[in-house]
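Posted in: Structural Biology > Protein-Ligand Complexes

Title: Requesting predicted complex, iron/sulfur cluster in pocket

I'd be grateful if someone could produce the 3D structure tokens for the following input. Sequence and ligand are given below.
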Amino acid sequence: MQVTAMDIYRLLPQTNCEICGEASCMAFATKLSEKETQIELCTELESDQLEKLESLLAPAVREITFGTGDKTATLGGDEVLYRYELTYYNQTPLVIDVSDNMDDKAFQDRVKTIEEVEFERTGEKLRLDAIALRNASGSKEKFAETAGKLKKSKLPLVLCSMDPEAMKAALEVVGDEKPLLYAATENNLEDMANLAIQYECPITLFVNNDLEKMKELSRTLRAKGIKDIVLDPSTYVGNGIGDTIDNFVMIRRLAVEENDEDFRFPIIGVPAVTWLYEKDDVQGGIKEATIAATLMNKYADILIVHGTNIWELIPMLTLRQSLYTDPRKPQAVDPGLYEFGEVDENSPVLLTTNFALTYYTVEGDLKSGKANCYLLVLDTEGRAVDVSIAGNQFNGKSVTDIIKHSKIEDKVKTRTLIVPGLAASISGEIEDESGWEVLVGPRDSSAVADFLLKLKNKG
Amino acid sequence: MDKMTQLLKLLEKTDTIELHEFKLDIDELELQLMPLVQRAVQKQAEVITKKLIPSQPFELPVHDYPGEVAEVQLGAGTRKPILLGGQKALYRFEEPQPNPPVVTFDVFDIPMPGLPRPIREHFSDVMDHPGDWAKKAVKDFGANMVTIHLIGTGPKVMDKTPRQAAADIEEVLQAVDVPLVIGGSGDPKKDPKVLEAAAAAAEGERCLLASANLDLDYRKVAKAAMDYNHAVLSWAITDINMQKTLNKYLMKEGLTKEDIVMDPTTCALGYGIEFSIDVITRTRLAALKGDKDLQMPMSSGTTNAWGSREAWMKKDEWGPTDYRGPIWEIFTGLTMMLCGVDIFMMLHPSSVQLLSEIGSTFTKEYLETDVPNISNWITELGV
Ligand code: B12
Ligand code: SF4
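-- Reply #1 --
Done. Output follows.
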């Protein structure tokens, strides 16, 4: 459902006044259609035209932000069913639950753990995004009091209670921080909706495996003027996961293909329910991660997870990063000459490719191994070592070029190049073309620091 | 403060924005401005009842598909047959798929000291004999199928002769009655000869010969399959056009859609899985839209997952590899399964089990499973 520049142009004032910074309304329309500018930059729009444009430009799935200031998380915003058609927007926020009946020490420890999770991959620091406070105690005072403690947290908040009284009590304390409310149900819809309106918070709609009912209730919320809705058709683990996948897919299809206004909202998945049935830390963790992966693959825009073991979170963070890479852009770093540690004219010279995964893996290994060396990063248009050898971007000639262009020959006395083990097959070619001697390094860069050490001790 | 932070600071308390003569890289602006601008726009209305455009009645968003996936039988003769593929729709709410996804356990013709420890642990007692290894996979871990990789035939490995490979196949055929996938060593010169000898040894058993690709004599592989009643794995490297070409060539040799399984290549989680997601999704959609050259079931070499360092590398900050490895395999396979893959080559027993559990739901009807009401999870979940 891609909007064309012409569709947009029709709704613009067509005066070419240039206030928006573009030379013409058509130029502005083109940028808008490519999501490269904001409609607010055209100040000349009548309010009804603005509203029409807004709805024309709105993504198929509404984009919702909760939290305030530098504590926010954004979800939704997708336009397509399959990532290859465009890209997916706004990585699925990963939210971890805490309950309001933990003793204070355990509570503080858990919050700290959640805030500190960090896993570095291809130069990006991957982290968790929010905290979901559960009203496990059933007491509204406890819920409000615990919510108050989370004011100090660095992460935005999801408030989980089906009891409007408890929700109200908590909102009186943290309502100004615009938490995501979880959840309005058929039984509490009026009261919860009123709280969402009063505090201007996004609200989740929970319905037990019944999309027809979900449509009806979503409509009710919309009729009240509520715009920020998150849909929860229930997460089932075990055999019920089939229904959950179906529901998620149908909601997304209705939004993207049918343009059904009642379903044009982000979907929330709750893999945490795994722990209703699993008590074993390891089995439960593996199962919960499996459910999370399933739902993230099939359109979950936000997930609530219970497990905090790093081995469970790393695969989730990695899958999320992969799903949300932009298929239109190569994942590459700048080619050229990089330095590690202390370098001088006697430092060894290494070679790798500019594929982000390759570069950052090698970089990580050189840093953690405290290596002192030069690293030449070859432009392979973002391809890994053996991929670019197979595709002929990595060959004697391209290596010779980078040796020349980087002026490495002015910096070091050595004329020995250390190449990845996987490049052994082209070492002769490199030697012939560049005049450098080639030393084949280990296959995996985790062994490279050791390799350099041995080399140094030898000579 | 750089320009961007200054701007953001300014915007923090603002509801409307006017920008004059403002120059900045627009990509950067887009990324960082989006949430703020949205918030300015999304102020929710007071309690009012809005007139909404009348809604359409609720209907399941089911599509019509002109094409369907071929059904491929593996196993015949003394093997229990297994069917792959046969989908007439993308999702089960449209029409449940006739056959559940299938897992085949990897077994090797040599002891494979290089296998990750969490795997060796389960099979160390049987690794000297592929027959025993296969038996254990079937009896103890419920494998639907077994893949025997004839790695030992590799010129740089043990350079076993095609005749020795045939003997290994016979051993495995004797040991188990599930269908087999027969894999070569990856040597493009030798594989066709090895596969031919193996195909002859397994005559009439309908194994899957892995693999035919454009870098080797695929004609020989196709011929062996036709002469001895087997199916062929058609392998292209994450390239839908290459896949189409290869399938066409194989069909020109006389194979039919019912004799071919495709391997569009599984890049592991974190190692390019997004390339596989895109290619596999597009391949399955093409099949359902009626592209006859892509209407075969698909296979995933899920074991590639063990090559990722997050799966095997010892590193205390990442937790034990005992859990990381299996999860890496599950995530990789599961992601492929959700894109339409039908058969999975896997190594670890617990990964196999979890994948199969989810896969088994694909053949059931929507809303026919008893589901609990989980609305109480907020109060019932432990701390
Ligand atoms: C993902 C992938 C792709 C992706 C590309 C992803 C990318 N941006 O590079 C796509 C789908 C596009 C692709 C395309 C192709 N691919 Co491909 N691909 C892979 C796959 C699955 C993973 C590659 C990867 O990401 N590796 C991870 C990175 C981090 O590894 P790396 O760069 O090698 O870095 C490591 C080491 O080399 C070393 N290292 C790196 N730098 C340095 C430096 C020093 C000094 C040292 C000591 C060590 C070191 O440490 C690093 C960390 O471990 C591999 C199979 C596999 N599992 O390896 C096949 C594979 C590399 N591809 C292959 C092929 C044939 C191709 C194609 C030619 C297919 C085709 N016919 O079109 C094309 C080529 C495209 C081109 N170049 O024009 C073959 C190569 C066979 C060969 N060795 O000749 C492989 C091995 C698959 C196979 N088994 O056949 N591929
Ligand atoms: S500000 Fe509006 S009216 Fe003026 S040129 Fe830009 S788009 Fe056209």
